[in-house]
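Structure first, sequence second, as always.
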């Protein structure tokens, strides 16, 4: 198995499991990973999904043989995959943006190329002090791929994004935290506990349906002007007010107790 999955309510952990290759991605790995994400998205025992790597790497990007096959193919497989996917947004891991649950990257080691894409397509990044990040694309004769030309400038600003893309330089965990590439930094031995605690905190304090609504609004509004975005948020807000979770939240406040919200997924 190229990945390992564990669920301990309310947390799911997906571990990339090719440690001898720094968890480099093959097409088989990508298929296993997506299937796991789909299953966990539908599992009501899961409030949030944590992604990490086994061994000393988070993910070193596409396996060298897979990359060679892709470049030798000359783009023919791109046409085939686009036809199969239909209207889905192209790019590695872009589907994580539409997963209705928090997706947390627990970056334990190097995140390079496609591994950097995976980390940046997660909603929140927690980095071990042993983590590092590099873009690599231009060094391989490629452009800012798989959405990095969209998300890196929004995370870092255009100057820092271009710097990382043009130079392919390695950014250590401390710099990644300083420039806003990661949200939290911790010691290596505390990484997974920190990620688990983050999901537990969300589960204890937020209704899963409103977590999903808020994630969708934040990403959708990145491409909108403020009048359209505020009208959109107003519609979603009043839909939320009409749900049972809003009544439960108000009742819990009156009764001075913790709220009990409905989970997302099939029973």
């Amino acid at each position: 198995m190229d990945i390992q999955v564990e669920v301990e309510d309310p947390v799911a952990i997906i571990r990339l499991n090719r440690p001898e290759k720094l968890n480099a991605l093959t097409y088989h790995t990508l298929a296993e990973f997506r299937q796991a994400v789909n299953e966990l998205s539908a599992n009501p025992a899961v409030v949030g999904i944590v992604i990490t790597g086994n061994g000393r790497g988070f993910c070193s990007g596409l396996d060298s043989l897979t990359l060679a096959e892709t470049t030798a193919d000359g783009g023919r497989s791109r046409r085939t995959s686009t036809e199969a996917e239909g209207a889905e947004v192209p790019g590695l891991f872009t589907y994580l943006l539409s997963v209705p649950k928090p997706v947390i990257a627990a970056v334990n080691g190097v995140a390079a190329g496609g591994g950097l894409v995976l980390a940046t397509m997660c909603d929140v990044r927690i980095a071990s002090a042993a983590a590092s990040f590099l873009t690599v694309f231009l060094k391989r004769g490629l452009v800012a791929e798989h959405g990095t030309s969209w998300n890196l400038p929004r995370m870092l600003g255009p100057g820092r994004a271009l710097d990382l893309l043009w130079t392919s330089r390695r950014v250590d965990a401390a710099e990644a935290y300083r420039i806003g590439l990661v949200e939290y930094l911790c010691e290596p031995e505390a990484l997974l506990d920190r990620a688990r605690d983050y999901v537990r905190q969300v589960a204890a304090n937020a209704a899963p349906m409103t977590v999903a609504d808020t994630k969708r609004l934040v990403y959708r509004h990145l491409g909108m002007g403020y009048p359209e975005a505020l009208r959109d948020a107003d519609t979603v807000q009043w839909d939320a007010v009409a749900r049972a979770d809003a009544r439960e939240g108000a009742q819990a406040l009156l009764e001075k107790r913790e709220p009990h919200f409905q989970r997302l997924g099939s029973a």
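Margin note: Residues 3-203 form a domain with the 2-enoyl-CoA Hydratase; Chain A, domain 1 fold (CATH 3.90.226.10).
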